[in-house]
Amino acid sequence: MKWLWHKIANGLSAISKYLIAYGPFGLFAIALLDSALIPMAGGPDAVMLLLTAAHPSWMLLYAAAATVGSTVGCVILYYISQRAGRRALERFSPKKQARVKELMDRYDMLSVLIASLLPPPFPFKLFVISAGVFRVNVWRFAIAVAAGRAFRYLLEGYLAAHYGAQAKELLTRYYPFIGLGLAVLIVMVFVTRRFLKNRKRFKEGLATENTEDTEGKIQTI
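The structure assignment produced for this chain is given below.
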C-alpha cells in the first residue's frame, strides 16, 4: 500500500510542476484541485510565492487566480459533501465535528471566513465539508471563503514581491500570529455589532412599552 501512495504523491508532484509552467492558469488549477480534496505538492501557497517572486508585477493576477481557484474548489467540495451527507464527516473525530458545528451555529459564515484565513494545520476542510453537510447558503459560503483566501494570497503576494525568497520564511514565522490576530479582531467586531444591535432592540422595546403605557393611561382618564 505504501508504494501506491508514494506513486500517487509522485504523480501529483509531477502534475503540480507541469501546471506551474502555465502561470496564473496553472495556479488557478492547483488552487482548485487542492481545495477540492486533491492535495497538490506544495499547494497554492508555495506556488503563489514562487510565481510572484519571479514576476512581482503580476502579483494581483496571481492572487486573483489563486482566490478564484480556491473558492471554486471549495464549492465543489461543498456540493460533494452535501451529496454524501454525514458520511463525509466520518474521517474526522466526533469531538472535532461537534466543535465545528458549534462554531458554525454560533458565528455562522464568520467561522468559515476565519477558518479560511488560518494556516495549516488548522482543519479548514472540515469547515468546508460541514458547510455542505449542514446545507448552509452556498453564496454566503463562497463569499466567506473568497474574502478569507483573497486576504491570504494578497499578503503572500505582497511579501513575495517585496522580499523574494525570504517571503516563505517570513510567512512561516509571522503568519500564524497575523491570522490569529485578524481572527480575534473579526470576532470582536462581530460581538460588538451584535451587542449594539441587541441594545438597540432593547431600547426600542422599552420605548414601545412606555408608549403603550402612556396611551393606556390617557384612555383610562
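Interim note for the steering committee: The chain has nine helices and no strands. Residues 1-9 have pLDDT under 50 and may be disordered.
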